[in-house]
């Protein structure tokens, strides 16, 4: 088990509106008036200062998380094997391909080794570039090889510094999004400060560096910033084209770097669909966004050697269905309230039916089953029947896939973020309902546009998108804790935008009969400044203490295991064990694996369940036969799994295996009536007794306090 221990002693604010609001900058005839010379100079100065602050805050965030990583592990002082062990579970698997490319004799040989890989899954040759999103590791390894930096920078540092650098891009994108929404860079500064002070809930990059989301989320944030700008009114054609290109590039990079991209973009597409149906976004721009999502995903599909999981994604089926349904229902946005509501219900039903039909057709043609575990998990999670499916229960029992813990909200509230977010969310939701009802009721669009300026309540397209985006991703985060990082980062943007926006304060002051333009300006700047001062005074000392706390990586048992494997087993040896540990075995030793943590393949899931019979109640001959069928030479047993106490009864790995095998679980508690006692004891416990029935198949060759390694006999 990896731990960290205490390290041994040894070795200004801006208070003027930056971007003029769209409403005050447009004449009734729709033309944009010329900006006075003084105002233009002020805008240039303000944008320059805001840009400098954005870059500075982004770089400081990057340095901050890099320092935390160094202080937590003493990364610069520990051995290479310890550095690699610190990349736990799937992180180690992804980093191993970067290491493999670096160590290859040439770039061509490195790529050939990935396309025809026979070490990640024994007795199988798989295409890593098709199965996994590792193009970023390929690109980075090639960059490292061609740049003249080898003698100055170790490969591991080039890798982690790139990820920490992407955090700067992430924070700058959040800053710019908030700035675009509110019209002032003060909002962006507040968003960045909230992101940093709520770091526990906004990112985990400092301890899960190679994780796919740490590559993808910065590009997702850039995409959201570009969409926010695209939804501004009165863009010039050249500006619109440039922004569409930016959206496409960001969407493509996001899709390329994370296997869950299709599910995140499906939620985004739902946001576009809802707003388009309610006439709150320009239909032409929404159409382009649908097309960009499809084309970006298809380009990734080509690069991943026509990965069938991408072709069978719900996103492609949904977007195609929306475009078809819109063609069929051409008069969707005409008529009175009841007429439009009827058409809207039919439209939603048509899109839903077409999506399911197209998706089922594609999966039938491609014989696609790679993502079935996700739907089994969702079905069980939301109570649509109990399941004994091993894969679904494996997800259900993990804390990361459970509901968002209540203490998350207390942490977010300590920085005032959650309180302000709730306040802004309530106000803009009320505004959205009013605007949506008004849009559905108004049949004469020309008259409606003439009356917009008379209404107290309005909602700009970019703010409307931000609202629906945060609501949908909030629902995702509440249901699945692992996805909270998609919500909390945007929460910082949304709350800061609301606090600095006249769009929020103006209707409040009008309702209280206190509205004046000057009073609105004073409030929209004074309250954010007070909030920034509060955050600074409360959290600055804690951040300084955190940066001064020095600890050290400490996992001697795993280090001993990896060193033994490298010294005492042949390079061609095949190892079986838990998928989390085997990722480290591949990275640290280069040995062949039977299974690994990248779970998006049906054959691998079935293989993993079979390998895990080492923790079930099975006979030694059964386990031996299973392991040898996958070419296993050595099996690693972990006491932390065999005698697991981290999970409660029913969620321990051995319990999941017992239920899947139809056996009664260990310990006190209820069992389902059709479960039967096993004829055999638990393999991982019984093998340690060195009984003849076990020693004829397995010989213990290594053990320490955590791990037991057995060599399999090679019977004829």
TrEMBL record:
InterPro entries: Dpy-19/Dpy-19-like, Dpy19L3. The chain crosses the membrane at residues 41-66, 179-197, 217-235, 242-258, 264-281, 312-329, 341-362, 418-440, 525-543. GO terms for cellular component: nuclear inner membrane. Pfam families: Dpy19. It is found in: Membrane. Residues 1-34 are annotated as: Disordered. It is a multi-pass membrane protein. This is D19L3 mannosyltransferase. It comes from Bombycilla garrulus (Bohemian waxwing).
């Amino acid at each position: 088990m990896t731990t960290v221990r205490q390290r041994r002693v040894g070795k200004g604010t801006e208070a003027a509106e930056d971007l003029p609001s769209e409403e005050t900058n447009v004449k009734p005839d729709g033309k944009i008036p010329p900006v006075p010379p003084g105002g233009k100079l002020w805008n240039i100065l303000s944008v320059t200062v805001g840009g400098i602050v954005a870059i500075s805050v982004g770089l400081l965030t990057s340095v901050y998380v890099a320092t935390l990583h160094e202080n937590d592990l003493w990364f610069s002082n520990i051995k290479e094997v310890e550095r690699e062990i610190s990349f736990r579970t799937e992180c180690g698997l992804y980093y191993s391909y970067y290491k493999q490319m670096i160590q290859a004799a040439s770039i061509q040989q490195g790529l050939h080794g990935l396309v025809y890989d026979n070490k990640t899954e024994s007795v199988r040759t798989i295409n890593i570039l098709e199965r996994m999103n590792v193009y970023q590791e390929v690109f980075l390894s090639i960059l490292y090889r061609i740049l003249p930096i080898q003698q100055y920078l170790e490969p591991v540092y080039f890798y982690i510094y790139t990820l920490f650098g992407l955090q700067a891009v992430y924070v700058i994108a959040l800053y710019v999004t908030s700035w675009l929404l509110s019209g002032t860079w003060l909002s962006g500064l507040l968003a960045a400060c909230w992101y940093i002070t709520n770091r526990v809930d906004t990112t985990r990059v400092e301890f899960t560096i190679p994780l796919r989301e740490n590559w993808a989320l910065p590009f997702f944030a850039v995409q959201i910033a570009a969409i926010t700008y695209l939804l501004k009114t009165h863009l010039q054609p050249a500006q619109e084209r440039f922004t569409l290109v930016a959206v496409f590039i960001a969407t493509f990079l996001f899709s390329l770097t994370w296997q869950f991209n299709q599910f995140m973009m499906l939620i985004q597409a739902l946001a576009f669909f809802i707003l388009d149906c309610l006439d709150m976004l320009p239909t032409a721009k929404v159409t382009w966004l649908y097309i960009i999502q499809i084309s970006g995903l298809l380009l990734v599909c080509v690069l991943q050697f026509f990965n069938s999981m991408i072709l069978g994604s719900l996103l492609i089926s949904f977007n195609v269905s929306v475009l078809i349904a819109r063609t069929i229902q051409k008069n969707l946005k005409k008529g009175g309230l009841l007429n439009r509501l009827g058409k809207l219900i039919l439209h939603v039903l048509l899109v839903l039916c077409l999506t399911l039909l197209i998706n089922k057709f594609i999966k039938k043609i491609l014989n696609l089953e790679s993502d079935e575990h996700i739907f089994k998990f969702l079905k069980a999670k939301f109570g649509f029947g109990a399941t004994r499916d091993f894969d679904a229960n494996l997800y259900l029992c993990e804390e990361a896939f459970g509901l968002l813990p209540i203490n998350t909200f207390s942490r977010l509230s300590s920085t005032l973020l959650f309180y302000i977010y709730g306040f802004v969310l309530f106000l803009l939701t009320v505004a959205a309902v009013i605007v949506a009802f008004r849009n559905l009721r108004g049949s004469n669009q020309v008259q409606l546009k003439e009356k917009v300026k008379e209404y107290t309540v309005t909602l700009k397209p970019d703010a409307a998108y931000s609202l629906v985006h945060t609501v949908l991703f909030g629902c995702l985060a509440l249901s699945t804790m692992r996805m909270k990082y998609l919500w909390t980062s945007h929460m910082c943007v949304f709350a800061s935008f609301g606090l600095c926006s006249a769009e929020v304060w103006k209707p409040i002051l009008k309702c209280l009969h206190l509205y004046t333009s000057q009073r609105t300006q004073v409030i929209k700047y004074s309250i954010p400044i007070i909030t920034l001062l509060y955050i600074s005074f409360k959290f600055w000392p804690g951040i300084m203490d955190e940066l001064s706390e020095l600890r050290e990586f400490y996992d001697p048992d795993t280090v001993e295991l990896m060193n033994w494997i490298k010294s005492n087993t042949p390079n061609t040896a095949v190892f079986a064990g838990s998928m989390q540990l085997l990722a480290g075995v591949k990275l640290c030793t280069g040995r062949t694996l039977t299974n690994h943590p990248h779970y998006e393949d049906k054959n691998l899931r079935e293989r993993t369940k079979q390998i895990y019979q080492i923790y079930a109640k099975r006979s030694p001959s059964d386990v031996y036969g299973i392991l040898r069928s996958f070419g296993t030479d050595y099996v690693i047993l972990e006491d932390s799994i065999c005698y697991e106490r981290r999970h409660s009864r029913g969620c321990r790995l051995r319990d999941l295996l017992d239920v899947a095998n139809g056996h009664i679980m260990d310990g006190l508690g209820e069992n389902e009536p059709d479960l039967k006692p096993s004829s055999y004891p638990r393999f991982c416990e019984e093998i340690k007794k060195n009984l003849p029935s076990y020693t004829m198949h397995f010989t213990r060759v290594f053990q320490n306090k955590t791990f037991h390694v057995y060599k399999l006999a090679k019977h004829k």
